[in-house]
Design goal:
Elements lengths: L1 H10 L1 H13 L5 H4 L3 H8 L3 H22 L8 H21 L3 H30 L4 H30 L1 H22 L3 H16 L10 H5 L2 H22 L1 H8 L3 H5 L2 H22 L1 H4 L5 H9 L9 H27 L4 H28 L4 H24 L4
């Protein structure tokens, strides 16, 4: 298996590197990074957990409203221009976050971080892999998605220590500089993309008239199928639940009588497992298809939400992170490949921007929902068990959706 990956990586080293770097840089707008600054931001602006969660929700909802349009531009704009604008926007978002002086500007900064980081940076990297390396889509997405895992493993801990040394504002200024100097690297990794895109466009045109060619669905056509709506619970579960858990590491620590550093310090384990599962699932998807791999991807997450309540022992964080990592690894590769399998490549940017908007909305709802429940003094046990039941429900809907006849 690893030999196949090695050969594939040697064939497309730059383009796969581009997917990796875009996934990694998206960390600046991901909840697992922003969440570690929560206590400092709450203290500075006088926000409780519920208020901070709702502030984050508002900024994220604004991003969800825009990304359905902005993400679809990748179907029409040169990838090199799209990448440069995305990373410039992310760098400016980090500068704004480090400069905010009021809750109003805090919402704007969160909107920009979520739009250009979580939204467009990850969308650019993964959509490009699925579109231009379609013959080995599973492996391409898996290798690019390692960037997410590396960011999850390293940046929360780096953020905690950087905040202790410099403060949270200076940390965001530093991230802005890192993103800015990464733009030439990303564009260098796209060298020769003009020929790649021309070959892709010619292949689409040549295959469009062939018998048995895969149909490409527009957004309107996808939304006209009942199947899409049965997929929704599974689509939103990882974003809703994962974002909520990463957004409140201090609340997990408080409920389990641990320290916040003990929780965030084990994100590396979550990421290590996610990388391993991502790599293995990429091979499985190329061999068997995403439709056969993804139906059970939420069950480890459901189990993790049960396991975390079995004891307050500090090493229970290990199975918790491992099980979450399994779902994350299947999610990174499986759903991205599933959209390409179900809806084709021609309008993949528009389809993925729509699904990204839905998942961004879910990621906004998660912290606000959990923050509100915590504000109502609902116990951590009750919250996690409710989320576990939702995972089971979403799995049943997913299995039903994949068995439905298509138009």
């Amino acid at each position: 298996m690893l030999i196949n990956y090695w050969r594939f990586a040697r064939t497309h080293p730059r383009f796969l590197g581009f997917g990796f770097i875009m996934a990694f840089l998206s960390s600046a707008g991901q909840t697992y990074f922003i969440g570690v600054f929560g206590p400092d931001i709450q203290a500075e602006f006088g926000l409780d957990a519920g208020s901070w969660g709702r502030t984050y929700m508002l900024g994220t909802l604004l991003s969800a409203a825009v990304i359905n349009w902005s993400g679809s531009l990748i179907d029409r704009v040169d990838l090199r221009i799209f990448t440069a604008v995305t990373l410039l926007g992310l760098s400016f978002a980090c500068l704004l976050m480090g400069s905010v002086s009021s809750p109003v500007f805090l919402v704007l900064a969160i909107f920009m971080l979520r739009q250009f980081g979580q939204g467009l940076s990850s969308h650019t990297g993964i959509t490009s892999m699925a579109r231009y390396l379609s013959a080995d889509r599973g492996k391409a997405i898996a290798l690019a998605a390692i960037g997410f895992a590396v960011g999850e493993a390293s940046l929360p801990v780096v953020g905690v220590f950087a905040t202790q040394v410099w403060g949270w504002r200076q940390t965001f200024f530093t991230v802005a500089a890192v993103v800015l100097v990464s733009i030439p690297l990303a564009l260098w990794l796209l060298k020769g993309h003009g020929q790649r895109h021309t070959a892709h466009a010619e292949a689409l045109e040549a295959g469009a008239g062939e018998a048995g060619a895969q149909k490409s669905y527009t957004r309107k056509q996808a939304l006209s199928e009942p199947c899409f709506y049965y997929l929704l619970p599974a689509m939103i579960s990882p974003s809703l639940i994962g974002t909520a858990l990463f957004f409140f590491p201090a609340e997990i620590a408080r409920a389990k009588h641990w320290t916040s550093l003990w929780v965030t310090g084990h994100y590396w384990l979550y990421s290590f497992v996610a990388v391993a599962v991502t790599i293995y699932s990429g091979v499985l998807i190329d061999r068997f298809s995403a439709k056969r791999v993804v139906p059970v991807f939420l069950l480890p997450l459901a189990l993790s939400l049960v396991v975390i309540n079995l004891s307050d022992h500090r090493f229970l964080v290990w199975p918790f992170m491992i099980l979450m990592g399994i779902t994350s690894g299947l999610y990174f590769t499986g759903l991205s490949a599933l959209w390409a399998e179900m809806y084709g490549l021609r309008y993949l940017g528009a389809i993925k921007s729509m699904t990204n908007a839905i998942m961004v909305f879910a990621s906004a709802l998660g912290p606000a929902l959990v923050g509100t429940l915590l504000g109502w003094h609902v116990s951590f046990v009750t919250i996690t068990l409710m989320l576990a039941l939702f995972c089971v429900f979403a799995t049943l809907m997913l299995i039903h959706a994949l068995r439905m006849p298509r138009s």
